[in-house]
Structures are given as C-alpha cells and as structure tokens.
Amino acid sequence: RTETLRKYVRMAPVIPVVTIEDARTSIDLAHTLVRAGLAVVEVTLRTPAALDAIAAIAKAVPEAIVAAGTVLTESQIAEVADAGAKFIVTPGTPPKLAERLSAAPIPVMPGCATVTEAMALAEAGFEILKFFPASASGGAAWLRSVQGPLPALSFCPTGGIDQASAPAYLSLANVPCVGGTWVAPAELLRKGDFDRIGELAAAAAALRRPT
Ligand code: 3PG
Asked: Is 84 exposed, middle or buried (CB count within 10 Å of its CB: 0-12, 13-18, 19+)?
C-alpha cells in the first residue's frame, strides 16, 4: 500500500484540496484538473456533499485519483473506502485513529505536525505523511531539518501553501508533492468558474522539482 501511495504522490507536484458544496460540480472539477495535469485530488469531508462527490469522481472520472481528506474518525474509514476513495488523508493522527488506519482497506497519508508525531506514525508503518498545517508548523525549514533524523520519511506539506511558496517545498528531497486549496478555491467552485480553475491547475502542474 505504501508503494501505491508513493505512485500517487509522484503523479503531480500539487494535490488540490477541495471542499465541495454541490456534488454535481465534482465531475467537471475532476475533468478540469486531470486535463490540466493534476490527476490527484483530495476531497475534504467538510460538507454533506463530500461522500457523493468522491463517489461521483470515482465512477465518472476513472483517470482521476480521488482521495478523501479531513478523515477524523474511525467510522469514516469504511465510508470513504466504500465511496470509492483511492486513499485517505488525515489532518492529524491521534494514536487510536492511527491504529485503525493501519488496518484501512486503502492507502493512508496520515497527518503530523511534529517530529514525535512523525516518529509515532513511522513506528505504525507509515512512510508518506501529510505535514499539516505546514506553514504554521515550520514550513520548508522544518522539512529540511527532519531530512537528517528521519531519512525514510517523505511528506506532503499542506496548509498555507500557494503557487508562490510551493517551489521552496518542492525543492526538498523529502517532498514529492504539496497540497493546497489555492488551485480550486470554494468561491470559484461556487461560481462554476472552471476556466479559472483550469488556469490555476495548469500553473500548479507546471511546478516541478529541479532534478
Ligand atoms: C487542508 O485540509 O489540507 C487545508 O485546509 C489546506 O488549506 P490551505 O491550502 O487553504 O491552507
């Protein structure tokens, strides 16, 4: 499962984090992102429409990799897997949730914000972690600092990142991709402005790690 997740986080430099109010918009959104070069999208469980949106994308846009984000409780693990989510993302990972996530039927990118939390997740078998909230928790400097002590771990930083700050993160060897809401913000989704979302997504897809 780690290898599957590794493949997903290497598919594009940015994972758009989206909050969907109307599940009907999710298919246009997924097509727009995939066309622009962002195949992976994290749908947060922050709205009643989220599960339907995940199911709609999984069914109608098979070339998209839809993740379920903001997974906070044990019961949501089966719900999102049943809806067709390809992997699970959590903002933080208390020990009991980590234990349940270890047995999840799909890959998991658990959230952490400290070295101790990252070590606990590594002990539980997770190697690819979400670093959240990234900019508030130390940003790219934190990630650079943990490369030495935690060489086996990689991180998808999310929280406070935008087009301008993404390159500093993507230049780090332990950062395969970053996440953020700037690509498909709620206002643009509400307006159905997929042209603008497509432009933002294309710019995000063009961000690359220097090789
Ligand atoms: C998340 O859940 O990952 C955050 O809400 C990302 O938000 P931001 O990109 O707007 O900081």
From this structure: middle
